[in-house]
Structures are given as structure tokens and as C-alpha cells.
Design brief:
heterodimer, A: mainly alpha, 10 helices, 0% strand, B: mainly beta, Methylamine Dehydrogenase, Chain H, four-stranded antiparallel β-sheet, 28 strands, ARPC1 (chain B), cytoplasm (chain B), Actin-related protein 2/3 complex subunit (chain B), actin filament binding (chain B), actin-binding (chain B)
Chain lengths: 206, 363
């Protein structure tokens, strides 16, 4: 009763149709606590992730690309905040971009064959999807002039339709995407479709 | 290896199937009814139709000794069909759930059955003599989402359930006056109703599609939507399990699994074929498919002649007819059940799937 009372008092002057009623229902799926769906995650600070990134880059400069990839994937900062995760995504992307196309499949097979290697490729797949999701976002913010010039008021629908043709003005993001796509193809060849289903079900997000 | 016995019943998904003890009757859940097929020579012929539900039937189970059939449906009801000389007589069971019933199984003692549901509850149903009806008791805690599947322990007291909250759980469904007090075992010593004997989750946390106790009842296997199977070896009440072994595969997720002895599991699902796992407490691994690869698919023989080649090119613009899978099932396998076996070892098992086929395999 009290909840109904509070809500109606608070929303008398408001646009009450915009209230998300699902949040008020304790049984609703939007109130489902997902923290029980993964093991306890140790918190990781952004500094630690940056330090790890430095270590990975050193390995990379030392010519040990496979070791760098392994280190980056074995230490995925599941418990970090969004900024820390973003930093680690940068690290992984750098490693991926520095590996030649001809080396991808043999390297993936070596990692997959090693004990616990399947798990590493699952983590790699998570980074590939995260990379694909985020490499399109800078393109929408890089065209403010175009937006301001149009009479239409763009609404944030979550889709970046104003980004223009990929590759035309966002050549760098297009190139990054093609690297991620070719990695994706090769990871599926080695680790199978099970790798993708685990990306979808796993609540340890990168 | 003898080739599997394929029965293509109709072009409609089969949610669940069950054979009677003498294997002469096959019950198949089709849409809102359950069809009963009788064996005639090499095939199965439609014999009877059990119409009582008004929404999709999700699960069906035939009790091996009594021959009673229990069905459950998205209309939130379960029906017990009593065999009689004039056909099957339905009795409605009071489930008291407000969401679809998803899965039903008779206990091995056949005095109870369990119904999983979307109402985050499992209804344990038993017959009350004095009122002459089936009543239910609910297992609710600590279920946090839909129950997708239930499976019984051989002692008819312990029940395993898989849920969309990614947990497989083992409960006690002990009901006074119906059950014998169970022997203390690896799952616990005192087992009042709704005791949670185990709660398991694997790292990648997929929805659980199937659960099954090993023939001895001392191990539990479950298959989840992360394309994995997980085997749990418990270690008595309030102790962490001796071993929890998770096998992540390169395949699509499994929908159903059975044990063959204590050291083998057969699982099938979205890859449309059955796979074998072998192992023990120290480790489990996928050993391969049960279908012989390279076998000519049903459509391969026709394409030999030049006439057919040109006909295909004319009709479809290509010479190869690649609309058929190489597997016997042409779509997801939803249920796998033991067909014939003794002492926990499986000689034959049956599968049914979305393609309307029921197939009997040699294990």
C-alpha cells in the first residue's frame, strides 16, 4: 500500500506514464539480481590494469606476441569498473592488431591445445564482441558538425545512423573492425560455435 | 553397429516422448494433445489421442509399472491418464501454479510425480486416498527462475531440477505417509521436504536444459546453454562436493542427456545428433558422435544420374541438394530417453526432436 501511496504522491505532477512499473515489482525480471550467476569476482583497480597493459606491451615489443595475448586473456579484469575494462580492451585490441593474419590460426590452435586453452579463447571471443560493439561508437561522436547542421533533432536511439558509411570517414575504425572480424572467423574455426554460446551466457563480463 | 530405427511420425515438433514398459505404446506430445502410437511390425500407427489440455503440451511420461500417463501443459495443468478398458480416463491435478508447467516425471516408485513450472516452483504431486484426488506440495526456495527440467533419484525422494537461473539443484521431496525414510547417502542424512541438498552453477552460467542422476544416484550431470555438461560428485551434507567437472564443448548446446553406466553420458541437442562423453571423478571428456560420419544422407543417392543433375540445376540453380543435414534428425533433438537397458547400462536409447522424428539407437 505504502508504495502505491508514495508513487502516486510523487507522480501527481509528473508524467506518470513514463514510470517504469517493472522496477516496482519485486518479482519482475528487471529486478533479477545477476550477481548470483557468477563466482565472486576480485575487484581490480584501473592502475593494476594499466600496469598489466604495460607488461603486455613489453612482451609484445620483445617479439612474444603469443605470450602477450595469453597474459592479456588470462588476466581479464572481470572485477574492474567500466574504465578499467575499457583500458584492458585497448590492450587486447593492440595485441590483436599486431599479429599477422598468417599467424592467427596456428597461434589459436596452440592456445586451444594447451590446458585451459578453451577458456582463453572464450575470453578472446568476449573481447572481439566488445571490440565490435565499441569501435562503432566513436564514429557517431566524430560527426558533430553534420548533426548540428541538420534541422532534425537526433534522438538517442542507441543506434548510430549518423555515423556515415563505415570506411568512408572512419577508416581507422573500419580497419579495426576488419581485424576483429578476421579474428572472429578464426576463433570460431578453432573453438567452434560453443565459444559464441558461452559469450552470450557468461555473466563474467569483460 | 546396426543402423538406427527411424520413425518419422509427422511434420511437427515433438516436445517430449515416452515408451510404455513393453515398448508397444509410444506417447508423443504434439501441440495441445498427446498422441499414442502402437507398434505394428516395423512401424508405429496412431492408436489414440489424449485431448485434455488447451495449450501446448510440454511434457509426457508413462509410468512403467502402472501404465498411467501424466502430461503437463502451458495451460498450467497436469493430467493423470488412467488406463481403462474403454480408453484413458483423465484426472486433473491441482498444481496451484500461475505459470506454464514445463516438465513432468514420475518418481521411480510411481507414487509421486514432479512438475516443474515457470512459477519458480516445483509441484510434488501425490495421491491422497481419503479425498480421492492428486494433491501437490510446492518446492519454492531458493528457486529464482523458471524450472526447465526435473529428474528423479532412484530412491524416489531426491529430485534434481534445472532452472533458467543457471543453477542445477537437488531437493528432497520426502512426503510423510507416501515415502519410506531414505537411507543416508552422499546427498545428506536427514531429508525433510524442501531440503536443498546441493546447488550447482558452472562458470559460464547457461540456462540448464537437462539434469540426470547417475544409475547409482551418487552423481549428478547437467547440460546447460553454454554448450557444456557438468558432472557433480557430492560429499555428504554440508560438505563441498568431492568434484565438479565441467566440459565445455565446441558444439551447440545440449537439450537432454542420459547416463550409460557410471562412466558414460550420452547427450544430444541443437547439433541434431547424439554425443558420447566418458569419464569419472578425475575428469570427463567428449569422445565423439554416435552417428557414423560419411554415411550417405537420405538425399545423396538420387543425385547420381546426369538427368537428376540437370533437373536440380534447372529447378534450384545448383547441382547439390544441400537442404538436408547429414544427421538422422533434421532438427534439434529435444528429448533423449533410455529405451532398453539393465542395471544402469543402456543397450538402446530413443530420441525425439523438432523434426517430428522418433529414433531408436544402439548405445
Amino acid at each position: 500500500m505504502s508504495i502505491i501511496q508514495q508513487v502516486s504522491n510523487a507522480s501527481l505532477g509528473d508524467n506518470w506514464r513514463t514510470i517504469n512499473i517493472d522496477l516496482l515489482d519485486p518479482d519482475s525480471s528487471s529486478n533479477f539480481d545477476t550477481s548470483a550467476l557468477h563466482p565472486a569476482l576480485d575487484p581490480v583497480s584501473e592502475q593494476d590494469v594499466r600496469a598489466l597493459g604495460q607488461h603486455v606491451r613489453q612482451q609484445l615489443r620483445g617479439g612474444d606476441a603469443e605470450g602477450a595475448l595469453r597474459t592479456a586473456l588470462e588476466n581479464a579484469p572481470y572485477g574492474g569498473d567500466a574504465a578499467a575494462k575499457e583500458v584492458h580492451l585497448q590492450t587486447v585490441t593492440e595485441v590483436l592488431q599486431s599479429i599477422k593474419a598468417s599467424e592467427m590460426t596456428p597461434m589459436l590452435q596452440r592456445i586451444f591445445g594447451a590446458p585451459g586453452g578453451g577458456e582463453l579463447l572464450d575470453v578472446l571471443m568476449k573481447y572481439l564482441y566488445k571490440g565490435m560493439a565499441s569501435s562503432s561508437s566513436p564514429s557517431s561522436s566524430s560527426t558533430p558538425a553534420k548533426r548540428a547542421g541538420s534541422n532534425l533533432t537526433p534522438q538517442s536511439t542507441g543506434f548510430s545512423q549518423m555515423g556515415g558509411r563505415p570506411g568512408a570517414q572512419n577508416e581507422s575504425s573500419g580497419a579495426a573492425m576488419s581485424v576483429l572480424l578476421s579474428w572472429h572467423e578464426k576463433v570460431v574455426d578453432v573453438a567452434g560455435l560453443g565459444c559464441i554460446t558461452r559469450c552470450m551466457t557468461d555473466f563474467r563480463k569483460v | 553397429m546396426a543402423s538406427p530405427e527411424v520413425h518419422h511420425l509427422f511434420h511437427h515438433p515433438i516436445a517430449d516422448h515416452s515408451f510404455s514398459a513393453d515398448k508397444q505404446t509410444l506417447a508423443v506430445a504434439r501441440d495441445t494433445s498427446v498422441e499414442l502410437y502402437a507398434r505394428t511390425g516395423n512401424g508405429f500407427k496412431l492408436k489414440d489421442e489424449l485431448k485434455g489440455h488447451d495449450k501446448t503440451v510440454t511434457s509426457v511420461d508413462i509410468a512403467l509399472k502402472s501404465g498411467r500417463i501424466v502430461t503437463c501443459s502451458q495451460d498450467r495443468n497436469a493430467l493423470v491418464w488412467e488406463p481403462s478398458p474403454t480408453g484413458y480416463k483423465p484426472t486433473l491435478v491441482l498444481l496451484r501454479i500461475n505459470r506454464a508447467a514445463t516438465s513432468v516425471r514420475w518418481s521411480p516408485s510411481e507414487t509421486k510425480f514432479a512438475v516443474g513450472s515457470g512459477a519458480r516452483a516445483i509441484a510434488i504431486c501425490y495421491f491422497e486416498e481419503e479425498n480421492d484426488w492428486w494433491v501437490s506440495k510446492h518446492i519454492k526456495k531458493p528457486i529464482r527462475s523458471t524450472i526447465t527440467t526435473v529428474a528423479w533419484h532412484p530412491n524416489s525422494v531426491l529430485l534434481a531440477a534445472g532452472s533458467t537461473d543457471a543453477h542445477a539443484r537437488v531437493f528432497s521431496s520426502f512426503i510423510k505417509g507416501v515415502d519410506e525414510r531414505p537411507e543416508p547417502g552422499v546427498w545428506g542424512e536427514r531429508l525433510p521436504f524442501n531440503t536443498v541438498c546441493g546447488e550447482y552453477l558452472n562458470n559460464s552460467a547457461g540456462w540448464v536444459h537437462a539434469v540426470s542422476f547417475s544409475p547409482s544416484g551418487d552423481a549428478l550431470a547437467f547440460a546447460a546453454h553454454d554448450s557444456s555438461i557438468t558432472v557433480v560428485y557430492p560429499n555428504g551434507a554440508d560438505e563441498p562436493p568431492r568434484a565438479v567437472i565441467s566440459v565445455s564443448t565446441q558444439l551447440l548446446p545440449f537439450m537432454s542427456l542420459i547416463w550409460n553406466g557410471e562412466s558414460e553420458i550420452i547427450a544430444a541437442g541443437h547439433d541434431c545428433e547424439a554425443y558420447r562423453f566418458k569419464g569419472n571423478e578425475r575428469g570427463w571428456q567428449l569422445t565423439g558422435s554416435l552417428e557414423s560420419k560419411g554415411r550417405a544422407g537420405p538425399g545423396d543417392a538420387r543425385e547420381e544420374t546426369a538427368f537428376n543433375m540437370f533437373k536440380q540445376m534447372d529447378l534450384k540453380g545448383k547441382t547439390k541438394d544441400d537442404t538436408q543435414l547429414k544427421t538422422v534428425h533434421q532438427n534439434t533433438i529435444s528429448t533423449i530417453r533410455v529405451y532398453e537397458g539393465s542395471g544402469g547400462a543402456v543397450r538402446k536409447f530413443s530420441t525425439s526432436g523438432v523434426d517430428g522424428r522418433v529414433v531408436i539407437w544402439n548405445a
